[in-house]
Amino acid sequence: MKLSFPGKIFVVVVIICSTLLYSRYQKNKYIRLSADNAAPILTKLPNLNLEIINGKGVINTSALLGKTQGVFAHLWGTWCAPCEAELPEFIKFAEKFKDKNVTFLLIAVNDDAKKIKKFIKRFGKLSPHIKFVLDSENQAMDQFGSGKVPETYVFEGSGIFMERFLGPQNWEMETYLQRTKNFLSLN
Question: Would you kindly state where each structural domain of the chain is located, as residue ranges?
């Protein structure tokens, strides 16, 4: 059976309409699924054992809970050029909290202790609340849900997640200082 010209147009219109309706159905299905899973994945400070590079021993992140006003977890690496460029500003920012009982964990990922020690010599003696640590078990990026570095996470003293900063930041900006004080209820 041969279709006439109007019949062919009708078939094409039906196919286009069917395709559009099906794509709309799939889109709504995806939106419903993503709305159901909209809660943040990271809600608490992950429990990690990290090797202290600018000191001795191992620090367990859970051991910090209740002993500090807040925890900054800064993921970085000596192999990461943006990390290297951002780090001096971040350390200056961290120094502003030396009397505020805030712990700064500079977590080196996919890295080597010797390279880190050589790298951090340029910063001289740091306040004890700034800890360069190595994720020697390579779990931090998975635990934080991070796909790249640098990334910075802020947790209140009980370990509740407060904020995430993706990529390198301009830590000299006053807004970071004020936001952090507000997050952690600091004067």
Answer: 1-38, 49-183
Query: Residue 134's beta-bridge partner residues?
Result: 51, 108
Q: What is the pLDDT of residues 155-173, one digit of tens each?
A: 999 999 999 999 999 999 9
**Pairing status of strand 58-60 against strand 161-166:** unpaired
Rounded Cα distance, 92 and 77, in Å = 18
What is the torsional sign of CA 121, 86, 156, 127?
positive
Give the burial string for 27-42 (b: 16+ CB within 10 Å, else e). eeeeeeeeeeeeeeee
20's CB contacts (< 8 A; 6+ apart) are none
CA-angle at 103, arms to 97 and 107, nearest 5°: 120
Task: Give the CATH number of domain 49-183.
Answer: 3.40.30.10
* 0.90 exceeded by pTM: no
Indicate if the pLDDT at residue 106 is higher than 60: yes
Q: For residues 169 and 159, what is the distance between their CA atoms, to the nearest angstrom?
A: 23
